[in-house]
Amino acid sequence: MEILDGKKVSNEIKQEIAVQVAKMREKGEKVPHLAAILVGSDGASLTYVGSKVRSCEKVGFESTLVKMPSTTSELELLNKIEELNKNEDIDGFIVQLPLPPQIDTQKVLLAVDPDKDVDGFHPMNFGKMALDMSTFIPATPFGILELLERYNVDTKGKHTVVIGRSHIVGRPMSILMGRKGWPGNSTVTLTHSHTKNITQIISQADIVISALGVPKFLKAEMIKDDAVIIDVGITRVADDSYEKGYYITGDVDFENVSKKASFITPVPGGVGPMTIAMLLKNTLLARDRHRNRK
Ligand SMILES: NC(=O)C1=CN([C@@H]2O[C@H](COP(=O)(O)OP(=O)(O)OC[C@H]3O[C@@H](n4cnc5c(N)ncnc54)[C@H](OP(=O)(O)O)[C@@H]3O)[C@@H](O)[C@H]2O)C=CC1
Ligand SMILES: Nc1nc(=O)c2c([nH]1)NC[C@@H]1CN(c3ccc(C(=O)N[C@@H](CCC(=O)O)C(=O)O)cc3)C=[N+]21
């Protein structure tokens, strides 16, 4: 069994990016600038956005965090997005999801300038991805592809079972694993809460990508010997014996599943850190696009 070490690989990627940014500074060029809009103060969202800002500092990017109260109206958020769209200094930005119920997420995703959409959630970019055109690939699926690539995991002709069909992870992942080329050329089954015989389907998988958010959903008995296991799930479990008052866990019963798998991602330290590294990569790409346009 080999651990797909997202922490390590993400640090390598950040190192590579830091070198490129240092060169930009030396030449007196503008460095990439990433912004994030956070509406409300959900604990997990704050953690994620906070580590994004720290990662920006680490690689030498500029970053801006826009915090808005949970009572923000849709119009106020759309106005803020328009401001960031117009701000020439900002290369890319994300609107942290989920949004409060008074805000229509679809309207928000449509409002982001596709050239600054480093999440890759705008329909224009999502469509380009599905059509194999060059674009921003959503950071979590992009990070998983990068891990598979760096560890030389064979995906060709393999049966990949994706669990969960969210627009930010499961759905794009299912499209990307089925694309031509590598990592891809997989035969993909996309499963969700209405899937019948899900256990039987998972037992046939060479690669399982679990993105449902149910702790210990995936158990050793469910998988094939030597399956590749990618655990996207992140759930906070309240526990006072931990310093922060909680610990985080994935969808996979790691202790037992890891004994049977050929490759497996841990939580924490697997897909999460890769997501942040790929967001930085997309911001670098955005900055290059803007320079080429001018
Ligand atoms: N590591 C990282 O970088 C990231 C981690 N995450 C984590 O990944 C998890 C999933 O988040 P997200 O992708 O936003 O998905 P959502 O929470 O939006 O959706 C969950 C998906 O899982 C499906 N599902 C729920 N229960 C079951 C079940 N018992 N059997 C089969 N399918 C089920 C749902 O089906 P249905 O569609 O029918 O409701 C839905 O498609 C969360 O824990 C989240 O925190 C998310 C993003 C990035
Ligand atoms: N517009 C938007 N884009 C996103 O990409 C997006 C989003 N909204 N909403 C929420 C999800 C979740 N997500 C995570 C990213 C990194 C970690 C991460 O770094 N996790 C660490 C641990 C973090 C901890 O300790 O809580 C790890 O797994 O090792 C987790 C989760 C991005 N998302």
UniProtKB/TrEMBL annotation:
It catalyses: (6R)-5,10-methenyltetrahydrofolate + H2O = (6R)-10-formyltetrahydrofolate + H(+); (6R)-5,10-methylene-5,6,7,8-tetrahydrofolate + NADP(+) = (6R)-5,10-methenyltetrahydrofolate + NADPH. Catalyzes the oxidation of 5,10-methylenetetrahydrofolate to 5,10-methenyltetrahydrofolate and then the hydrolysis of 5,10-methenyltetrahydrofolate to 10-formyltetrahydrofolate. Pathway: One-carbon metabolism; tetrahydrofolate interconversion. Its EC number is 1.5.1.5, 3.5.4.9. Residues 4-119 form the Tetrahydrofolate dehydrogenase/cyclohydrolase catalytic domain. Belongs to the tetrahydrofolate dehydrogenase/cyclohydrolase family. NADP(+) binds at G164, R165, S166, I234. GO terms for biological process: L-histidine biosynthetic process; methionine biosynthetic process; purine nucleotide biosynthetic process; tetrahydrofolate interconversion. GO terms for molecular function: methenyltetrahydrofolate cyclohydrolase activity; methylenetetrahydrofolate dehydrogenase (NADP+) activity. GO terms for cellular component: cytosol. The lineage of its organism: Bacteria, Pseudomonadati, Bacteroidota, Flavobacteriia, Flavobacteriales. Keywords: Amino-acid biosynthesis, Histidine biosynthesis, Hydrolase, Methionine biosynthesis, Multifunctional enzyme, NADP, One-carbon metabolism, Oxidoreductase, Purine biosynthesis. This is Bifunctional protein FolD. Homodimer. PANTHER family: C-1-TETRAHYDROFOLATE SYNTHASE, CYTOPLASMIC, C-1-TETRAHYDROFOLATE SYNTHASE, CYTOPLASMIC-RELATED. InterPro entries: Aminoacid_DH-like_N_sf, NAD(P)-bd_dom_sf, THF_DH/CycHdrlase, THF_DH/CycHdrlase_cat_dom, THF_DH/CycHdrlase_CS, THF_DH/CycHdrlase_NAD-bd_dom. Residues 138-289 form the Tetrahydrofolate dehydrogenase/cyclohydrolase NAD(P)-binding domain. It comes from the Bacteria.
